[in-house]
Amino acid sequence: RLSQARIAITNKVVINRQVMEQLPFLKLICVAATGMNNVDLGYAQERGIEVKNVAGYSTESVVQVTFSHVLYLLCQHRYYDTYAKTAWSSSPTFAHIGPPFYELAGKQWGIIGLGTIGRRVAEVARAFGCMVVYYSTSGKNMQQDIVRMELDDLLATSHIVTIHAPLNEQTQNLITYEKLQRLRDGSILVNMGRGGIVNEADLARILDERPLYAGIDVVTREPIDARNPLLQITHPERLSLTPHIGWTSIEARRRLVQGIADNIKEFLKRSCGA
User: Of 132, 69, 123, 129, which is closest to residue 103 (Cα–Cα)?
Assistant: First the structure.
């Protein structure tokens, strides 16, 4: 019976006080993710329940999906893919020059949230020739090798802005219409953090007002609500939307499962001598 469980494994399911009170024998919660915001950590500590996550398993996967959004939008890939499949065969010239696209080299890449994923994005962006700057959502991260900026300045001066922050009191509704107005025309905003950091109604509004671009892998309600404003925009070519796949490469999922197994083994070894 579930009430007899000593170990619980969770991802999106909320493990709050009420749930834990129904599990009197619970000793370990394994979160199948890095973030633990779906667990009442305070009450778990009060009950003596260990909570274990799997840190770092998805870093390379999230970084790769981040760049897939940026390059898809920067290179106008949607337009050129459609053209090549439908109209190129009847073109009088060997190359079709349509909507302009740009190089990453020489551009400013702004990172919101410079944790493990943010730092890895910075490394790859530098390899492309970008100048990297960052904004610390906690106000405590003072990296010495990357220029730190206030949010308004980062938004106003960066060509690409990517978000790799957790959802908390500091980041909830961080990017509103007022903040989005600071972005320069042609810039790209990518949210790989959590839904709720970017106000989706405000983003949908500005994508239809100005030539801005956005890559979104996470939304406030998942699966996405059919009434989400991002699904109603009149300029869908300005939006690259994926269904929370950043963490899901085959390699990342293998690391996640192995990490959960290792956490359980370590717990059993300490508590049972297994």
Answer: 129
